[in-house]
Amino acid sequence: MNISMKWLSTAAMVAILAACGGSDKDNTPDSLYKLSGTVSGLNGTLVLAVNTNNITINNSGNISLGSQFTSGTSVNLSITSQPNGQSCQVSSASTITFANADINNVAISCTNLQYNVSGTATGLERPITLQYSYGAQTDSTEINGDDNFTLPHTFVYGNEIDFNLPPAIGHNCTITPQNIVITENVNNLEVNCSTFGQISGRVNAYNTGVALNGAQVEVFVLNQDSEPVIIQTVLSDDNGDFSVKGVGYFDRITLRATADNYVTRSEVVRTSELNPDTTVSIGMLKVDFTETFAANEAKEIIDPNTALRITLPANAFVDGQGAIYNGQITAAITNIDASSDPAIMPGYYLAIDPDSGEEMVFESFGALNAVFSDSNNNPLQLAEGSKAQIRIPLAARGVNPPATIPLIHFNEQTGIWDVEGEAQLISDDQNRKYYAGEVTHFSTWNADYLFESVNISGCAIDNQTQLPVAGVRMISDGVNYIGRSVAYTNVTGEFSIAVRPNSEVLLSIRDADGQSNTMRVNVAAGNVNLNNCLTTDQGAMIVSLTWGANPRDLDTHFKGPTIADSLTDRFHIYYARSSSTVEGVTMYLDVDDTSSYGPEILTIPRFPLPGRYIYSVHHYSGSGTIYQSPTRVEVLLNGISYVFSPSEDDETSGINNTWLVFEVVVSNDGTVELIPIDSYTSVRNNDLPAAVNLTPLMQLPPKVMVD
């Protein structure tokens, strides 16, 4: 009985203890776990939310995100604050649950935000370069014109960028701001440019004056290494006009004009602070003739009208890649005889002396232009090692031609001629003289004599103010030799221009800022100092008459009112009355040529009265006709060139011996209008029809002919 009771008491105690929670092991707290991971690419401060707890992270590397997590606990990870200039994200799972273990694979990756930099540009005539530096790196981009631009690189937060605009031809440019620090996209850069130096011009057919629409004009200048670089290409409009702004200031700017069926033409001009804007007339010669032949056959090209000839070997031409060309070749050939007008020769009459390397003036004895192209009109050139024989006809006005003469070719980009070889004076079976030589490439080839020049020195003043005129262009054309020289006046209006010794020249100012009368100067063996200044007039009209060997003598006639708008009271300028003064304005026939070619030059400083004026050409003596000669009249008015030639033939040695060329209508406000007439009449009726009926018929006095 006692034993049983003892057992029951023990069992009861066990039951009571069980009800109270059991052993010490069952009473231990849950295990706690850690959350950790890594951050990569961080360059600032980010805030990571771990459930509701925000943790600030300042560096890349290992991170601890807590150590009090129990098994079964879920954690949401989110970035509540991004670092400046970066985008960070949880690249591992953003929601995780603990399962009786630490979690150490949380991954956060950060990348830099990329910012664009852009702006606007105004005032550009051609692309300019923008340089920008950030850190140790310097880059550049080209801004192509007046428009929005964006830098090709992107930048990161905190990048400091410095901007620089290197000098650009013909442009003064600024950029605002010059320095920025990247904190966001930038779109407020401003590039503002102004230009300096401008060329305005007109492209026309030299012989007829017809405007050439769509002629391509390339503008070349010399860079710091004296190498030609093209700065712009423009096309002429319906009137043949073109304009190039922002050309800068250069002593020599070469304009190369090309047009279908015309000889490539290069004109040389200058701009400066004294004369920032200039005008130019580009008169293009029509190609004389073309001929097509097979490249794999030897060819002799013969001009039926002159002694010009080109002899070519077979397989002599290469294309632009230097490969031998085997197809059909078209040759465009032109004889260039500057006897009547030195201006038809491209560029200045300057060549590089091969001995000294210096520029020298030369006299021309004839030239030719030859261009060869493939069946697609792509240019061809003689292959290396190939040679061609050429014959350059002696110029009609070539005086005392040397037996041997240098051959020079024209550089269409520099505007200078280069000596390459020599030519011999020979006569063909028709007793026509020519210079024969050998060439290794084709362009414009000239048979020329380089000479040691002397100088004509003088000054230029404004006719109205009598003050010196700076920066205007002086021109000297040879009378007894074929050549032209160009110079510019300095700040005090003085000039020095190179001419041939023992010569006679026609000296004048021909510039958009003023024109002068033409002075005939006799030059001996030494320098010449002029006693009187040439005078310029802003509104001057210069009329130049040129023609061929026949007729021997053509004469200028110019008539106009001595009373405003009068058709009865009129002056008459011609060879027997070479000047007329009306209202204090003296108008001149500067030159009267009686032995073929011309020029005869009429200078009208300004029109003295409103009314109607008329210019005509009289066939005074010699065979042939005005049309056949051919005759050319060029008018320079307000810096613009106008060319007239007769459109039809007539027997001008008979009754209709005068070509009425143009009328000038001057209004009361001084506006000048040039109106073509282009008809034939008698010299006795060489005035406006309304005036002819009101005035007596004129009788011409005889004149002395000069050989």
TrEMBL record:
Gene3D superfamilies: Carboxypeptidase-like, regulatory domain
Entry superkingdom: Bacteria
Name of the protein in its database record: Carboxypeptidase regulatory-like domain-containing protein
Species of the source: Rheinheimera salexigens
